[in-house]
Amino acid sequence: MGGMIAPPKPLNAFQYVWRSPWVRAAAFLIAFYVAYRLLGRVGSVVVDFAVAFLIAYLANPLLNWLERGRVKRGLGVFFVLLIFAGVFALAGALLITVSAQFIELLGSLPAQIERLSVLLDRSFTWLGERGVTGLDGVRERLTETVQTYVQNLGQNFIPILQNVLNSTGTLFSRLVSIGGILGQVLLILLLSVYLMLDYSRVNAALLRFFPRPWQPKVLEFTGLVGTAVGGYVRGQLLIALFIGVFVWLGLTLIGIPSAAAIGFLAGAFNIVPYLGPIIGATPALLLALPSGWVKMLLVVVIFVAANQIEGNFLSPYILSRTTDLHPITVLVAILVGVALFGFAGALLAVPTVALGKLLLEKYYYPSRVYTEGP
Predict the structure, then answer these.
(1) pLDDT at 37 > cutoff 50
(2) Torsion angle defined by CA atoms of residues 89, 91, 96 and 101, in that order, rounded to the nearest 10 degrees
(3) Which of 12, 97, 150, 242 is 20 to 30 A away from residue 3, measured at CA?
(4) Distances (CA, A) of 32 to 28, 50, 101, 104, 185
(5) Residue 226, Cβ neighbours under 10 Å: how many?
(6) Where do transmembrane segments lie in this chain (predicted)?
(7) Is the entire prediction scored with pTM above 0.85?
């Protein structure tokens, strides 16, 4: 009777109960709630691991290139750590110089505003003598706007920079305290070393958390995320570095004081596209004001040139292969991100839109819903 089909095994109690969709829904809700509570308790550990994984992800192309040149992975990781140490040492030295210049810059801005007020008085008087009307209150509003901008800068940046420069301040005491920033940095560095050494094995282990039928799609999706987000981050860091150096050298050549601070400001804020030159131009113009219109015009030329080089050469060349977004799309994405989530939204808007575009091209446009209609 080998051809007879064996009767199905009776369901055990768990299988019988699990058949109910309400039981499954309640179980998933409880699991999500427990995961949410656990995530709240170990959130700092998750953030540390995410930062370490991002470091390993950004360093992995360099490590792969070194391996293709017959450099062992461990030695390549050592080279990467040397590069990071050099970058951090250079950044620390630059931060001290820039912080001192930035405090000096903010301290000199009130005097520049007074000169701006005198210049506006002369300009509006000259326009009034020639019959131009409707200028009542315009000068006061312009001066108040600039004063508010400078006041906000002073309130937000000067205390932070003074603490950085003061070795006996709060930052120094936190660095040497147990469990402070130094311990967290060392933990992230240690995790990133292990992740860089076993990057492929860690990715394979993370992939095994997903059911086997899902794994090809998970790999495909993570590849899209790497293309949109990872490529954007690498490219935007290079562009921000260029903007900072270009502005610094340009302002130094024309004799603007605190050029390093303004270049650092322009480069740092240019991580959000197009924002750096706008932020850096205001203090540069105020510092150029006492030297006359020629120097102010040269400042405008420097920032316009930086913006044009970024928008017409660097961004298309570096980012086109990863995001391929029109400048209008980038600008609208940044504005929407700012409106929804502030500065963090502006920072995440462009890679999120780039990922959305890749998902549309990969899944939606080839689908029947798009080609044949709902």
Answers:
(1) yes
(2) 150
(3) 12
(4) 6, 20, 50, 52, 30
(5) 14
(6) 21-39, 45-63, 75-100, 175-197, 239-272, 325-350
(7) no
